[in-house]
Amino acid sequence: MTDAPVVAPVAETPDEDVHEQKAVRLEKRERLLAERADAAGGAYPVAVPVTDTIAALRERYADLEPGAETGVVASVAGRIVFSRNTGKLCFASLQAGDGSRIQAMVSLAEVGDESLQAWKDLVDLGDHVSVTGQVISSRRGELSIMVSSWAIAAKALLPLPNLHSDLSEESRVRSRFLDLIVRDQARETVVARAKVNASLRRTFTDRGFLEVETPMLQVQHGGAAARPFATRSNAFDADLFLRIAPELFLKRAVVGGIDRVYEINRNFRNEGADSTHSPEFAMLEAYEAYSDYNAIADLTQDLIQNAAVAVSGSTTVTWADGTEFDLGGEWDRISMYDSLSAAAGRAITPETGLDDLRALAAEVVVEVPEKVATHGKYVEELWEHFVKGSLERPTFVMDFPLDTSPLVREHRTIAGVVEKWDLYVRGFELATGYSELVDPVIQRERFVEQAKLAARGDDEAMRVDEEFLRALEHGMPPTGGMGMGIDRLLMAITGLGIRETILFPLVK
């Protein structure tokens, strides 16, 4: 007995061919429903025999010698991804959802002429089947099931793409279900994301944090500088917003006495989409009473490094392109103003006038719309121009301009800045952290200034949130807080773009 070569699906199937293949498969579906309903449940049975997973058999019989027979009968199910029908012996490769595969060998001697012919006539690439038979190793050493009986588990009406040809990125994100079938990296990314989330929760649990849930539908948006999605509630006869951040509700929880709190949530921002931005994204936010932005930076480093170890077994991760990237060690902490001054070749401080900043921006062709043209906005845009692209290693950029950070406490020793950091990895912003503003009087003043910006046309400015201010007026302890994009954390660990790290990204 020898293995026959396998045949893969065609690389690119023209629409007319797909139509023809679907018509043929629909005829087979009708035959299955008519001829095999009693014996095998037709084309879509409610259940099929399964005693073992393919992965479990591969692990159990990893050392089986070529040509060996186990005497063990097993039933497994999977999708047919390769197939070859030759005379009295047919071969198929069955793939489980985790990507593990086993060979099915359907022979005349084992199943009889009628069953073998039915396999040849009714089974196609892409079909889910259940096979029952002895576990063996073929002469070529391929772990196999010598089939004694089989059943269709689900009839596929459309052909699979070629397993040997890469799908385009557009095809991958539009048809992620196909991507998961044909590409190991797609499945591995889903597993990596699950490991990351589990690791984050373990780290928080070990530190005594509680996970909570806050509203996605909000009467008033806030917690970040972003443009919201608006919607309407018929039940409440009110305009509502999809949340741009959970911050203001998590802070309410701290006021209420939940001193260490976090949430892994979905946020929605009605803004552009590119390689690092998605209108819908997953985010982690956490707040710790009696802490500050330095301690929160330590926590964030631990969260990310533990997640890297959970996925890769080490803080040195391997990206999809094979590049190794070191997330270990202590990460640098640099000043926004100092690093900007060094890169620009001139001193830029919180006292630098708007005219000087405007002149520098014009000199290096950095544009800031007049409706948002503040000292802080110019400083941040200039910093991105001069410094951002040079940050490859994980780096905390510390101490931001006051007027762009309305929810952050003023620096304890440096006038004109706030105790805020942004964490940059591979040149993109991964997380942000604060010493939170807890003085309700100053917070109201900041909200009023934001409202003025909103009146000037700044769609990202916050509004005065009276309910949040009322919570602060009941007393919020000194608190450190952080926010991090889960999708971007996957980018840092896997080296992929944001649309690859999101299982089903929004596409037009």
From TrEMBL:
> Out of the domains of life, which is the source?
Bacteria
Per UniProt, what is one Pfam family of this protein? tRNA-synt_2
**Which segments constitute the Aminoacyl-transfer RNA synthetases class-II family profile domain?**
193-505
Q: How is the cofactor bound?
A: Binds 3 Mg(2+) ions per subunit.
Q: CDD domains recorded for this chain? A: LysRS_N
For whether the record's keyword set contains Nucleotide-binding, the answer is: yes
* Enzyme Commission number(s) from the entry: 6.1.1.6
Instruction: List the SUPFAM superfamilies hit by this protein, alphabetically.
Output: Class II aaRS and biotin synthetases (SSF55681), Nucleic acid-binding proteins (SSF50249)
One MF term in the entry's GO annotations: lysine-tRNA ligase activity
Protein's UniProt keywords contain Secreted: no
Q: Which residues bind Mg(2+) 2?
A: E429
Gene3D superfamilies xref list: Bira Bifunctional Protein, Domain 2, Nucleic acid-binding proteins
Q: Which cofactor does it need?
A: Mg(2+)
What is catalysed by this protein? tRNA(Lys) + L-lysine + ATP = L-lysyl-tRNA(Lys) + AMP + diphosphate
The places in or outside the cell where this protein is found are:
Cytoplasm
Q: Which UniProt keywords apply?
A: Aminoacyl-tRNA synthetase, ATP-binding, Cytoplasm, Ligase, Magnesium, Metal-binding, Nucleotide-binding, Protein biosynthesis
Q: Which residues bind Mg(2+) 1?
A: D422, E429
Q: What is its main location?
A: cytoplasm
Describe its assembly.
Homodimer.
What protein family does this chain belong to?
Answer: Belongs to the class-II aminoacyl-tRNA synthetase family.
Q: What is the recorded name of this protein?
A: Lysine--tRNA ligase
What organism does the UniProt record list as the source?
Microbacterium flavum
